[in-house]
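Revision sheet: structure tokens.
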Amino acid sequence: MLRSSFLAFTVLLTGSISLQAQQTDALAKIRSQVEQPEVEMHVRFLAADELEGRDVGSPGIEIAAQYLASYFRSRNLKSLPDAENYRQRVPFLQAKPPLQGELKIGKQSFTLSQDFVVRQGQNGSLQGSAVVLDWGTGAEVTADQVRGKWVIAKAGTEAGASPQAQLTASADKLKKLQELGALGLVELFHNQQRSWNQLAPYLSGSKFILGSSNAATPSTFPLIWLNDTNHSLHQSLKSQKRPQLSFSISGKEEQVLSSSNILAVVEGTDPELKQEYVMLSAHYDHVGIGSAVNGDSIYNGARDNAVGVTALLMAADYFSKNPPKRSVLLAAWTAEEKGLLGSRWFAEHPPVPLSQIIFNLNIDGAGYNDTTKVTVIGLERTEAEADLQAAAQAFGLEAIQDPVPQQNLFDRSDNVHFARAGIPAPTYSMGMTAFDAALMQYYHQPADEAESINFSYVSRYIQSFILAAEKIAGAAQAPFWRGGDKYEAAGNTLYNRK
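Predicted:
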């Protein structure tokens, strides 16, 4: 009995020592292979003035796309189905706003821009009766109720309060209402985080929407946002039995264009686990050229998100030399700044089954104001928490939770499409402890240039990101959502968990 216990203890101890040795070896390799000069080279190239802020549809973003694809090819990474030369084509429509428009509901008339904006729809007029719902989601929406009618509802969902959540919810409502044969959607905007005067100029500008898988075609289904700051309009319209609605616009222009998600795979070494993917993702677009600040009109996007894309490149190099047990899927998204559109296209047209993607470690953020930390949006929400903390600690950093949960940052980056599908998907951001002046002086500003980056910190941050990915890719069991998370049920369905 004593001999048996001793042997069991010896096996356990040997396994523990072996695991520690592997982790020490990985740490040493990352330190030696992920070096600051190459980190700096990639960030400086991607955030150079010559790329003019990497706006979708610009020559600059195409240069960045070719840079990424060429780098993946140089590391002999595998391409994916429907992503020839590492490019998954994403079709768009770029819509310029109408010059004139009229909206009338019942006896009330509304003024374009001042009262309403047209987020989607074609030149011309459309009339019909309207049904007024609360949120326009779930059991409220049935074919019998909405077919051949306008739908009027509050923007967003009962659970989604942020402007980004409201924008995301619109796409879901739109898709369902089109399928059910509705005439159009009017959403009543009310938000305590962002006023109508702040949001209307953004919504009234040039817009990108996803096209179809065959070719981008203009969408004739109207989507209107109507100001309802005091909630009084919703109550007034709901009291009417079935108000008549008339709508017309003119002067709107649309053009077809495309961009690409840049995708590559490092195949895993385990015969069984290599069928599972750890997806590392970052968006490579930015906002392009805008209003001049101190004479500079190029919004370079070094922090947002040349640093994140550089992390993908360094991960590609490292894992091509040190493949883990699971496969690593590297995904550089286009059109994040246009409404998370590139990642949404991937989620709706996945080149591998989403059920084979066991984890998404996204990398994005507004910047940093604490170089002793890594801020993981969703740190506590998955079973990878300890690995993420240990990876940061290995490079002298502290992994912290989202410091501003009221901003709902988890649902405002590319990871949200995969989280909603059920995939555990935190975002690994640089050290951010508040939306303060130190952060905002660079966020979406021309000042966000490579010259202002602390490359010593950024290099350690990227090293910790790669170590976190390696820990997850080599784990005996794939990390899942913590019990009770709002995306746990979706994960149970996706992975067929009992």
